[in-house]
Design goal:
The two termini are 25 Å apart. By secondary structure, the chain is mainly α. The chain has one domain (5-62). Helices cover 58% and strands 0% of the residues.
């Protein structure tokens, strides 16, 4: 799991797969490990973690949380 752009580029150059934070949250919800991702995303944002708001809205919409 990685969200850093430099790390993603390095991972790609090595031919490896990666998954970001939102992807991991989706997997956790799909597997019923968590019920909602929205509260977790809100906590990330409050803690200073950067996520694109348009991406978050689309992501939450796709998961049925908007």
């Amino acid at each position: 799991m990685i969200d850093d752009l430099k790390g993603r580029k390095l991972t790609e150059s090595l031919g490896m797969n990666y998954i970001g934070t939102l992807g991991l949250l989706k997997i956790a919800k799909d597997r019923e490990i968590i019920r909602e991702v929205r509260p977790l995303i809100e906590n990330f944002l409050e803690g200073g973690y950067y996520l694109d708001m348009r991406l978050i809205e689309k992501f939450l919409e796709d998961l049925g949380e908007i």
